[in-house]
Design goal:
single chain, mainly alpha
Length: 127
Amino acid sequence: DALPEDSLVARARSATPERVAALLAAFPRLGAMYSYLRTLFGGESGEGGAGGDGGAALRLPDDARVALAQHMPLEEALWFWEELRCGAVDTVLTERLMRGEAIGGDRGRSNFGTLMERLGAFEAAGA
């Protein structure tokens, strides 16, 4: 059976870098599916984030990176920061942290040691 054209799955399968921001606006829950998006648009070198090689930058325009930073779990955005990084993403993440948004998640990437490593990476990069 064919998927409905306007379904999240059908639209995600045919996504292009230029359409990711609009797709996230239509389906904000796609932000929680970052692992799928990174297989489509790069960023999958090593584990990325803390303990990895820093990950390759995503092949996405800045507006898509910003949309991801707004919609994905904060824990994931911090973990894969190097892949998402642009000035506007840094601003979005800073605002989310300043609002006191909870970092915790279900992926086990928000323990104290990992968060300290992330802070060190941000500082080393001048973020």
